[in-house]
């Protein structure tokens, strides 16, 4: 079995589009949430979103790319190229037949779908754009990344709603662990801050109607009332330890465990007793061969919905037992919002940063914890913390649970 390490990452997010800015935002507790600017949202009843700001389009793209790809693909390619740059991965020096891409999206090209349905309605079916399908389908972030970087190995796009990126990273981890690939770009990309995206979640009453950016995404707070839509991409370069060492790569961290299962309970709600999520966490811990007491931090799914946050608390208590009293927990969605299929990638990078720099990112804007939350939530300010293992949780509609266990890398 191969050990699987992280040698690079790239991120497009509401709190930064480069490694340095993203880290500084995590440490300082920067709020990436604000009024929706992408469209007039006044009729949706929703005013807030966590938009990617000042996206550096010109760094890797020209105008024609925006006409041939939906924004979720552009985010994915950008994050992948940033990850490769950090990793100093040279495709001329590796076997590209063993270089893969496993990047998913929860929804895919939602803006393209919305635009072209309206175009068909207004102008007729003959006026639908020729590239509608390849711009809209959810596998095209992965496909476009592989095309851009010349990766000829496995290329797949997991779709498990908000667990998508964690599942993608976990399956990439297993693929390398069992010897099928040397290097894989893994994570998720999403661009669903659109009229239909916001309206759909608003109709489901899953999204907050708060108008105050500081009271929008407030996981574990007594007054939480729904999530804030985010967007972006988070992509990791995963490699076998042997491959990374052979090319002299700088190793940032290690993935040591992955747990994935299904609640088999409800279309949109988590199992209230947390048992499904707990099992996924236990599976990740078992594969990592670490005692639950060794888990120093959990990057919680923490969506700021009433049902998720309590169920996840129960899951942590079941999975860690007595050790649940000591583990530090936070939800970075308080800063980034919830970027659906990209969220696991962005949060895996946040967790990696926490391990590298030995701190716990805060859950910002908490005023009063829900009395049902009986775990150690890191509130409002980051904390220095000495730890070697961390979990990052992602749970999705359909009952999908995906948990990664990361280990601090020490030379």
UniProtKB/TrEMBL annotation:
Pathway assigned to this chain's UniProt record: Lipid metabolism; fatty acid biosynthesis
Keywords: Acyltransferase, Fatty acid biosynthesis, Fatty acid metabolism, Lipid biosynthesis, Lipid metabolism, Transferase
EC numbers: 2.3.1.179
Pfam (any one): Ketoacyl-synt_C
A Gene Ontology biological process term: fatty acid elongation
Catalytic activity line of the entry: (9Z)-hexadecenoyl-[ACP] + malonyl-[ACP] + H(+) = 3-oxo-(11Z)-octadecenoyl-[ACP] + holo-[ACP] + CO2; a fatty acyl-[ACP] + malonyl-[ACP] + H(+) = a 3-oxoacyl-[ACP] + holo-[ACP] + CO2
Class in the EC hierarchy, top level: transferase
GO cellular component terms, semicolon-separated: cytosol
Gene3D superfamilies listed in its UniProt record: 3.40.47.10
Claim: ATP-binding is one of the keywords in the record: no
Role description: Involved in the type II fatty acid elongation cycle. Catalyzes the elongation of a wide range of acyl-ACP by the addition of two carbons from malonyl-ACP to an acyl acceptor. Can efficiently catalyze the conversion of palmitoleoyl-ACP (cis-hexadec-9-enoyl-ACP) to cis-vaccenoyl-ACP (cis-octadec-11-enoyl-ACP), an essential step in the thermal regulation of fatty acid composition.
Family per record: Belongs to the thiolase-like superfamily. Beta-ketoacyl-ACP synthases family.
PANTHER family: 3-OXOACYL-[ACYL-CARRIER-PROTEIN] SYNTHASE, MITOCHONDRIAL, POLYKETIDE SYNTHASE-RELATED
NCBIfam families from the UniProt entry: fabF, PRK07314.1
Annotated protein name in UniProt: 3-oxoacyl-[acyl-carrier-protein] synthase 2
